[in-house]
Structure formats: C-alpha cells, structure tokens
Amino acid sequence: MRFYDREKELHVLGEVLHRSKSEAKMTILMGRRRIGKTELSLRCGDETVLYFFVGKKAETLLCQDYVREIREKLNVPILGTPNTFSEVFRFVLQLSENHPFTLVIDEFQNFLKINPAIFSDIQRDWDLHKRSSHLNLIISGSVFTLMTKIFEDKEEPLFGRADEKMVLEPFTTDVLKQILKDFNPEYTPEDLLALYSITGGVPWYVTLLLDKGKTNRDAMLAALTEENSPFINEGKNILIEEFGIDYVTYFSILTCIASGMKTRSEIENELGNNNIGSYLMTVSLYSGSVSSTSIRLLWRIRP
After folding, report:
1. Would you say the pTM of this structure is higher than 0.85?
2. CA–CA dist 27, 41 (Å, integer)
3. Is the distance from CB of 52 to CB of 20 less than 8 angstroms?
4. Which residues does residue 49 pair with via DSSP β-bridges, in sequence order?
C-alpha cells in the first residue's frame, strides 16, 4: 500500500530539518504500535538518515548494530569499539558538526529496561553539543505512558529538551474512504464501516486487510479469525506491553467491564480486591486514547 496522509506531520518534520542546519533539533514522535511512526520518520526529507532501533538486548550488542549503521550510511572510520550508547551518541553529535544528517531512534522507551542512565547521558551530551551540532534527532516511541514520563515528567533528565512533539493519530474516515476507493472503487457504506470498526484507522491493520484483497465487509470479517490471523493476538500483545507486569489485573478488570459490570464496587466484589482505584484510573485513560483500538481488538474481535 502506498503512503497516505500525514501532510501536516511531514510539513513539520521538513521545517525542523531545515532549522537543524543551524543547530541540532530534537523531535519526539509518539503513538501506538502500528500507527506508522517509523515510516513517517524515515520520510523526514533528509538524504542521509541513520536508523537506530532500540531492541530488547544488551547495550553492547545495540552499540554494535549502531556502529554498523554509522559505517554503512556515513562511510566514516570509528576508532575502537564503543560499548555504551553514550559513546555512540556523542560520536554522532560530533560527526554532524561538519556533515548535517538525521538520526532516528526508534522504540526509545526500551532504554528504561536496558540502562536508565542513558537518559542522563543524552541530556548531558545534548546540552553540551546542541549549538555546535547540526543533528536532526527524531525520537520515536510506542508505549505512550513511558514516553510521556521520559519527556514530560519534570523530574526526568530529558524534560524540556524536545523542540517539537507530535502524537501520531489513526487515519480519519475521510482518509479511509480515499484508501478504500483506491482498492475497491465500488465499495459500499458497509464496507467502509467494517474497515473502520476493525482497524480503527491504524495504518498497519488497514494494510493487512487491503493488500490481501480483503476489500469488502465479508472478506474483512472473515480475515479476523482465519488461521494464523495476526489480529487474534494483536490486542492482547499491545495491552501487555502497555500495562507491564500488572497486565493480569488489568485484563481481569477489562473482563468484568466486558461482562457488564459498571461500578467499582461490582468489580471489586468480583475480583475480591479493594485496591483497584489506580488500575481503574489507568483503564479510563486508555478508553479514549491510543489504546482504544487495542481494547476493541482484544475484547470484541476474538475467536
């Protein structure tokens, strides 16, 4: 599927890229998984883009990946073998002093589990080198709660460092109309309703359906529960990532809500737990946020 929409976001990224030629700029790109953050960031308009993915592995192994990316994209020698992200990041900042380029750091929140001290190291090096550097830094993350804490909590090292912040939203119904028309010019209102209800406008889900020829209501609905359908476990996986180690409690609360329980006392009686206030507050925040599609996939679209 070709790239759709995001004109406003691309315009902002283009402006930030231009300003980074004077001094380094930091853009925060937030949004749930599958929303298209990586694709958007790689389309920032720069000819040279380094891409660092923060996988869940040791810092030394990540540094090996990043050094390889630097060598391949910038064709520059790197003396020694950096073992910390701080060394790599400082080297990138210094490189951009003479040759401006873009660095995309994807799934940035994963540094919390790898080495939380990295955030303080980034703050130090960013503050020291920002004015002399010409780095266009795009930081992307899909766990909304963690990204918000990292950049908006006044107690965190990176608070106030971002020059721009964007929260990537799902496609609107107008965009879905345009996409569905391209794949099925004779689509019906029922087809559009099915596409919106199933995907919530999340680009990856839209691509899964339409690229496989699921362009009408019946075909879309059948795709949800067919063998090896990626939709079956998608909602559960996203919620586990968001809720962390307490996901069992959250899932129990969602089960109660799905069963028709509407009050705190009803849920507490069912679970035998009188300390669910903070959990309910978090669930209420998600009900209208980026995770609403995940909840729908988990509780309404399951075999």
Report:
1. no
2. 10
3. no
4. 102
